[in-house]
Amino acid sequence: MKHGKKYTDGAKLIDRTNLYDPKEALELSIKTATAKFDETIETHIRLGVDSRHADQQVRGAVVLPNGTGKDVRVAVFAKGDLAKAAEEAGADVVGDADLVTKIQGGWMEFDVAIASPDMMGFVGRLGKVLGPRGLMPSPKAGTVTMDVAKAVQEAKAGKIEYRLDKTNIIHCPIGKASFGADKLLENFNALLDAVIKAKPEAAKGTYLKSVSVASTMGPGVKVNPNKCGSAAQ
User: Fold this and answer.
1) Fewer CB within 10 Å, N- or C-terminus of the chain?
2) Are the C-beta atoms of 106 and 176 separated by less than 8 Å?
3) How far is Cα 15 from Cα 34, in angstroms, rounded to an integer?
């Protein structure tokens, strides 16, 4: 794969054989974020589990202390008092069957979907649309709840969902390069703490196989898995 000059120059700053402490790795990611826009810093975590087995799934959500730096658009499936509560909490769009129909018609201008439990009969019809995009409301992620107002506030504050892909890797944004290393480190630790806490009982051997951070357009920086999470620092 051919990379541009900025990527190549950034890669020269990184020792690909070294496992960096988290803060140093984040500092390098910021240095290599040389695009004209404020690049997102992402974390990639390879776990020693097998996602093909139901008892080794790793999925959940965590509120990043410093948010993601992104203006999150929230859609809520609710009616009555819960719909009103969602609107007052700052939801961008609220509806019930009408919102389902709107999405079935191709409208997708939202980043997070939240639903009250009584609406899941309607929302289930959107499985093929929302599922592949990672937008399907889920009790595990806290996006199927009676407390829709709290869910909206958390989503707006920087709540992110983490889940394994088919290659047993979790990919998550942890903020913008402009945050600086200290704020990014707080977000990084919050994510790693949540993932470590979510370790399945069925997982054997090394749980954190590898961890890396990277800016949107920059090279990956390997992090020492033994230094990940608040307890390790």
Assistant:
1) N
2) no
3) 18
